[in-house]
Amino acid sequence: MTIKRFKNTKATARAIEVMVAIVIVVGSVAFAALQSQQDTLSGNTIETATADLRLSTDDITYSNSHTGFDFNNLVPGGQPVPTAGYSVYLRNMGGTPLALKLALSSIPTNPNHVDLNKVTLLLTKVGGGTSIQSFSLQSLMTAAPSGGVAFTSGNLDNNNAAQYKLQIAMDSDAITGSVAALGNIDFVFSGTAQSS
């Protein structure tokens, strides 16, 4: 009878081992079933905001280039011309606010040797509190390689337009003769993207 008991104990031990193995396997399967699967967010793209500044002289037709103005009948030391100013509208058609700058991209024809430090462009922002900023033609030429001289009137928000008036003034000692003319003057307005 001892032998039979030993066999039963062996069979019982074997049965317990099988049961423990089944519990481990079932527990592992249950644990694996509780783990999250991998989820994928695919096909992403990254794009920068668009900086798109356009200008107009009539607040209707906006483009990257327009024919300029004739600032005539200027009296050195006198009032800026024209009296009412010429209108320029800048529109931000991009997706981010723009910090505005102004430069002179060309060297003016200057047969009478006018001192370009003494010829001033007056830029007046219209509406929302009038602010006037003056730029000598020389400073606009000097600043051209770095993008120009910054406007002090603030950023131009995206999908907005602003109106400016342009006038020219000349110091009385800017010329030595009785008459002077400057030509080939290209004013360049630019905008640099700013964070919102």
Please give a handful of descriptors for the protein shown.
alpha+beta, single chain, 8 strands, 20% helix, 2 domains, rod-shaped
Overview of the structural elements:
20% of the residues lie in helices and 29% in strands. The protein has two domains: 1-36; 53-193. The radius of gyration is 38 Å and the shape is rod-shaped. By secondary structure, the chain is α+β, with helices and mostly antiparallel strands. The chain starts with a helix and ends with a strand. The longest helix has 33 residues, at 2-34. The chain has helices at 2-34, 137-142, and strands spanning 53-56, 81-92, 98-104, 119-126, 131-136, 149-150, 160-170, 187-193. The strands form two sheets. Strands 1-2-7-4-5 form a five-stranded antiparallel beta sheet. Strands 6-3-8 form a three-stranded antiparallel beta sheet. The mean pLDDT is 87. It is built from two helices and eight strands, in the order αβββββαβββ.
In short:
The protein is of the alpha+beta class. The chain is built from two helices and eight strands, in the order αβββββαβββ.
Q: Mind telling me the C-alpha Rg?
A: 38 Å
Low-pLDDT ranges: none
State the separation between the terminal residues, measured CA to CA.
92 Å
Number of domains: 2
Q: Estimate what percentage of residues fall within beta strands.
A: 25-35%
Mean pLDDT: 87
**Strand-and-helix sequence, N→C?**
HEEEEEHEEE
Number of helices: 2
Number of strands: 8
Tell me roughly what share of residues is in helical segments.
10-25%
Shape: rod-shaped
Largest β-sheet summary: 5 strands, antiparallel
Main-sheet strand order equals 1-2-7-4-5
